[in-house]
Amino acid sequence: MVDLNKHKLELDYPCSWAYKIVVLESINIKEVVQEVILEREHSVKESKVSAKGKFKSYTLDLIVHNDDDRKTIYELLGQHSSIKMVL
Description:
single chain, about 25% helix
């Protein structure tokens, strides 16, 4: 088995990056994403709805410029009170 903790992710920046975001069904995902990434060009697509319909997941695609940029966006998304999970 490969231990992924021993391998560093190597990307050629800038590159397209996708974040999976899980929110309550009632949340306006476009407003939430706009609050985090401001004026950056992006796309948001609905992915799945939970079995009971309480949660929805979305894919957020945007260009990241370097490793810090990618990680910062991940952290900002995770800190937003309306976002339940970021992958």
